[in-house]
Amino acid sequence: MKYFPVAASALLSTIALVAGSWAGTSALTAVVCVICLVLSLGWPQLMGVTARRSLSTVILLAGVVAALGAAVVREVESLFFWSSVALAFGVMSVFVIQVLRGTGRPHRLESTLGASAGVVISTTAAGWVAGLRYPAELVGIGDSDDALGVLAVPGLTLFEDWALLDVTGTGGELSVVGLAAIGLGVSVLLACLPLRDALVLPLVVLGGFAGALGTALLWGELTLLFSGLLGLGAGALIAAMRRFLIVQGAPEGRLSAMAVGAAPIAGMGALVYFAERLLFV
After folding, report:
1. Interatomic CA distance for residues 252 and 2, integer angstroms
2. pLDDT digits 0-9 by tens, 61-115
3. Where in the sequence is the signal peptide annotated (predicted)?
4. pLDDT per residue as tens digits for the range 23-47
5. How far from 51 is each of 89, 97, 101, 189, 231, CA to CA, in Å?
């Protein structure tokens, strides 16, 4: 039960991301902002930093600005622009807050490093929004572009031909974000098994891989290689988080535990977006 808030926060975040990907950009942006809110409320408490209210505000605002920026830009090259801006100003604000606290304050270094890490995680969550918008809204794939069906998943990698690394089909925007969130959700569920790490960690990685691959086969809009790589990344991320929690112990405080659960889900956004950009042909 001591890990329940962590698992619940992670699982609810993945479910909300799947639902948001179906509902569209506005809904997904709202989901990402809520994840940033959960992260901002618990992260300073988790890090044991001082000036918690001001640092929580900075973490929240950085994540919200990054998500809203990814939701409103009109050019592909600008999808992560506001994340970079929010990250820069967020870290700068953390340093300004530490200066304004005056000299002789305790744990100044820990506060600076911990809050800066929170800003990094919250701004990378915008990758979920950017990943949703990238293939369909900004690249503009149409029905005529897939006349030969090269973007559909045929079920066997042998028949994927030169489109082995392709990402999305004519249906577009739901594929990558929904698939990544489902892979994360499967990994989170497997990570809750009360078994030894030697048994659970491989299951978590393989579960993320199988969840993503199965989703790709049912969805029919992603190639199997890309789906498998994304699923392996999701599983490895959750497996690393589980191992970290087992070694360090459960976080103290409900808000801290919820922030720990939301952190890898938020951070996965950057992996989703950049993997999509790199492997889109």
Report:
1. 9
2. 999 999 999 999 888 888 889 999 999 999 999 999 888 877 666 677 778 888 8
3. 1-18
4. 888 899 999 999 999 999 998 888 7
5. 18, 8, 8, 35, 38
Q: Using an 8 Å Cβ cutoff, are 28 and 17 in contact? A: yes
**Most confident option among 222-226, 234-238, 274-278:** 234-238
Token pair belonging to 160: 């994927």
Question: DSSP characters for the chain?
Answer: -TTHHHHHHHHHHHHHHHHHHHH-HHHHHHHHHHHHHHHHHHHHHHHT-SSHHHHHHHHHHHHHHHHHHHHH--SGGGTTHHHHHHHHHHHHHHHHHHHHT-TT-TTHHHHHHHHHHHHHHHHHTTHHHHHHHIIIIIT---GGGGTT-TTS--SSGGG-GGGTT----TT-THHHHHHHHHHHHHHHHHHT--S-HHHHHHHHHHHHHHHHHHHHHHH-SS-HHHHHHHHHHHHHHHHHHHHHHHHH-PPSSHHHHHHHHHHHHHHHHHHHHHHHHHH--
Q: Is-contact 165 121, C-beta < 8 A?
A: no
